[in-house]
Amino acid sequence: GNTKEYNFTVSYAFWAPDCVERSIIVVNGQYPGPAIDVQRGDRVIVRVTNQLYAEGISIHWHGILQTGGSAYMDGSAYVSHCPILPHETFVYNFTVPDQVGTFWWHGHNAGHSSEGFYGSFVVRPNPAFGDTEPFQADGESMLLMNDWWHRSHQDQFIGLDIPQNPTSDFRFVGEPQSLLLNGRGQYNCSLLASVPAAYSAGDALNCSTTSPQCSPNTVIGPITPNSTHRLRIVNTGSLSFLNIAIEGHNMTVVAADANYVTPVSVKYLDVWAGQRYDVLITADQPVANYWITVTVRGRRPNTPPGRWALQYAGAPAGLPTTNASALAAQQPAWDNQNFTLAQQNLYTSLGGSNLTDPVAQNPTRQIVLVNSQNRVDGRKRNVLNGVAYVDPMTPITHTLFFNMTGGYTTGLISDQPPLTYNYIKTIGSPDNYTLATGQSVFEVNEGDVIDVVLQNGVTLVNASDPHPWHLHGMDFWVLGSAAGENFNGSTAKLNTVNPVYRSTVGLIAYGWTYIRFVASNPGPWFFHCHLISHMHMGMNTVINIKPASGVYPAPPPGSQMCGMVTPLVLQDFF
Ligand code: C2O
Ligand code: CU
Hints:
By secondary structure, this protein is mostly beta strands. The chain has helices at residues 153-160, 197-206, 324-330, 337-344, 358-361, 396-401, 532-536, 565-570, and strands spanning 3-15, 22-27, 36-39, 43-50, 59-62, 89-95, 101-107, 118-124, 139-148, 178-181, 219-223, 228-235, 241-246, 251-256, 259-266, 268-271, 276-282, 289-297, 306-312, 365-376, 379-384, 387-389, 436-438, 441-445, 449-456, 467-471, 476-482, 501-502, 504-507, 512-518, 523-529, 540-546. It has a 6-stranded mixed sheet, with no helix packed on it. A 6-stranded mixed sheet has the order 21-20-25-30-27-28. It has a 5-stranded mixed sheet with strand order 11-19-18-13-16. CU-O-CU linkage is lined by residues 60, 62, 76, 106, 108, 274, 470, 472, 526, 528, 530.
């Protein structure tokens, strides 16, 4: 392979992605950040310089499996490495493993990915290795779509952290103000009259349809009439589960999270936060402009649909003349769980699945993770089997390599919820559930075959939220999912023949999702709900795969130090 080098300088800037100006995080002065575009087998070197004023940063290459001992390059702050402090440069250096398709990168410390700190990452087939793809496209476009707030992640987190008292507990930032496509959308400034006073004062000042980045519609294309066009669709958002539709065109889904699926045609495509889909569209309609509309699913929306244009080459400049709202109105309703479930279970691996490997047919361990909400140390937290995750002081890779005790807590979280759980009941103190805060690391052996049952419980307001679960380090098979029930131990609803293999999967409200993976990649891997607020509230865990060799790789030269490593290293000087 070749070596592809990038320099990323990360800073704050004023920006008005939806016509309302606020401070956001830009990379090299751009939002979205620079696109990474490489071939399978390439070495990727990204020199990241932090020019934020006072916050540590890290970058996760979402979906890229850091195989071959590069767990340190995974960019999950406090799991993979220490945050890169202001003024510092850290060099990410890894080989793109045996993967081809659509990925993305994003800040992975605190709420940075919701500040605009992300970009696309494409891995192309490598002709030098004779790579081909099982479909053909004449052209392609990247569609990064996400929810957007006028408030910063700090404001959001402060609200989530307000300690409980009987009358004022927790201040949720609420549903997003806008939906963006490739960093642009349009907030309706006239709506400011009806938003809470705390918002409107500042927003009204900063809302202007002549703001430099504000554009009425992002245009995708122009695409060539009668060609096949590939759309690389990523939900880079922080909260919203999105559905995308293209006026007059079906989408043939050919890959999910950079794994080929049996091609399947859909009209309305669900994309959970963190997920990626490659779809093909055939430009067989009259030469014109067509709406692309995006709606919010899974949570009662309070955000106008996003609308952008797909332009055919030769179409007049300007917007479609049809009614975008009519298209958005046809998309599945936010609470249509049957649609969600049917589509999630629609995808199968192309040409069977490596799950047919006898090894992968025999799980060695089953972990049942029940998520619910409770008050832990006075704050509302999202707990997994009673445990709310907090970042450790020392990155887990360091704790493992230096073999330090006390770097993270173990044994806090059990493989099974300790009580007979019920999806319609909050798991918490009423059941004498022990609640704890810590790192809840699962220690597994290299080569283990791990089943995880994600069981959705209820929140403190007796509701159940949808959650997109993402595993670092390895992809997993989605054996099945259901809504409105407890997983009852039966394998009857599981597909062990050709399940889709992917990296982020939805967990439906009041439901369960069953996944399996082979613990093939040694190192500590973050496993979490991809919603930024839920991560902040503790809905994370770490799967540490102990290397069969017993040896953890050393942190690379030039690594930042923090936590317990700093005194360990400094002691040599005194
Ligand atoms: Cu895209 Cu741990 O995240
Ligand atoms: Cu969640």
